[in-house]
Q: What sequence folds into this?
């Protein structure tokens, strides 16, 4: 299992802030400059000033299109005959969309319990979907066989430097958008699955005096455990609403990129994720998926600490691909209270 | 009843595009420049290019803050001891918020069946709420008595020139935001209650070659009937999801402002409003209230006509103050299908 994340050589790929800036130039006009949403209600509730980067409004419904476009573009330029990727959902949607736009065949490998909404979106893009097991190793095995049998290029969701740099453009944009309002972020909070968002954020925020805070479900503490062990390791996965944050191991490239510059890791309980989804919908009028709600829940908790009161806190609302039945049940539950 | 809308002299207040431009200057930095949201899903579904002005993300949860701030500011500058307004909800929330910010007492008069969410938001701003009957005349009577007994100034939701010019700034911003993307709107679709949004849009769009299209619930065809009779008239009100569009009569100032420049009025059935709310939530990931969904439903219908296929169509997503129970029941209904 320890070889899972080593198919791409990492040591010779030390990403820096300039890779994120290059990624922004390459992505200009190809992804949406999503809005930064404010909410007086939320700010009052938290006692801080939240700046919500609404990547749930991004094409494909999440920030993952950023990295996928760059990686697939590089592969197509190199003569790719097809691309294959594994994902719990959003990276797969993004790769399917990028492949369609760049005119290359795509196969996506998702867990058997992937959100049906996400599977539907991938099939809508004309890509092939393969469902494989429930943990990362199951999906990796299928990706490897597709690579061997068909000669497809693997778009790794955590290990590809274009992916990590691309995901960092969301935070780079957020920092710039807040500056254009005459303010400066004190912290930015991002959800952690495989780690590309938080690694990209560490690159984007380098030299900016912005604390980068990671949020992960208590049910899947892959970053917390990696930090404890000094390296990525597999963790036992308990059930979580945050289907986008279920990778049972953080990627080596994201881990190496963020380990020394991360400010804090907060683990979020399931009840906090659920309440945060509800609050985001009713107070900010944005539909977000549980992964994004995990980041906002962590930001709400962060804001209770005296040092963060009244500060400017950015939050990556990473995506909006959520099962309608989950939203319906949350509304029913909280409305009844 | 025919005197209801004549408390402000209209004839000598011929609003023009420059009033909207002045309003924009006065509002700069005081209201949010709300984002214009795109949705590939929605565009594909409709065969047109939609530009959704997300005023559900405005402070107070609707575009009505724009006009309210200007009108209350004028009254405070003239030495007001308090302001009073009637509304089905959003104008009242906006006046309460404006009054709090400008340091003046406010009383708001709503129908007895007003949305509890809206009543809650008004009370949260520290304003007084009075519930009166279910039709416009009931509320007008209470407003008049508050004006006489307490000397409060009336912030009329339809007749105040600052309100109409202020509401027009939402459309003016939308036109500018689309231009900044190198595009030009061919049409803009707005919901009609008392008529301030559509009147403001006619002013903002003057000389721009943009068709202004009004959308009203078939259950409350106040603009359709006013156009048929050549003047505002009271209509019978059937039940509608669109609580924000229930005024049973269009305002005289909005009617005079828009009657000659409106391109089209579309009436929207209740089932279309419900489906449109659901589609907006799940396809654009924005929570909107039924009034906003009414405009989007009309825009979807408009786009089916050959002349609008592939065109750029703006939609005012007027607000997001919606009962959670309604959203829950819509999700349950459509998810089950």
A:
């Amino acid at each position: 299992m320890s070889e899972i994340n080593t198919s791409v050589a990492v040591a010779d790929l030390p990403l820096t802030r300039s890779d994120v800036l290059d990624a922004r130039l390459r992505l200009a006009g190809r992804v949406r400059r999503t809005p930064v949403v404010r909410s007086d209600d939320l700010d009052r509730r938290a006692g801080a000033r939240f700046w919500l980067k609404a990547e749930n409004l991004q094409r494909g419904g999440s920030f993952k299109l950023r990295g996928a476009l760059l990686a697939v573009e590089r592969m197509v330029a190199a003569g790719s005959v097809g691309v294959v990727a594994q994902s719990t959902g959003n990276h797969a949607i993004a790769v399917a969309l990028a492949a369609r736009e760049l005119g290359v065949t795509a196969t996506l490998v998702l867990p058997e319990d992937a959100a049906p909404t996400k599977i539907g979106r991938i099939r809508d893009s004309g890509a092939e979907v393969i469902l494989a097991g429930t943990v990362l190793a199951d999906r990796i095995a299928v990706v490897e066989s597709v690579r061997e049998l068909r000669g497809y290029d693997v778009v790794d969701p955590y290990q590809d430097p274009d992916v990590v740099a691309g995901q960092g453009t969301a935070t780079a944009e957020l920092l710039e958008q807040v500056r254009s309002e005459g303010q400066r972020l004190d912290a930015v909070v991002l959800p952690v699955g495989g780690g590309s968002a938080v690694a990209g954020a560490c690159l984007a925020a380098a030299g900016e005096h912005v604390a980068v805070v990671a949020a992960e479900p208590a049910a899947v503490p892959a970053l917390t455990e990696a930090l404890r062990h000094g390296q990525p390791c597999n963790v036992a996965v308990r059930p979580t609403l945050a289907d986008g944050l279920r990778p049972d191991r953080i990627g080596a490239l994201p881990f190496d990129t963020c380990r020394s510059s991360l400010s804090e890791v907060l683990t979020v309980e399931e009840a906090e994720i659920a309440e945060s989804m509800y609050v985001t919908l009713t107070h900010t009028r944005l539909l977000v998926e549980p992964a994004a709600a995990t980041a906002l829940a962590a930001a709400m908790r962060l804001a209770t600490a005296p040092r963060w009161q009244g500060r400017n806190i950015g939050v990556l609302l990473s995506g909006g691909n959520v099962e309608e039945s989950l939203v319906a049940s949350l509304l029913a539950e909280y409305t009844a209270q």
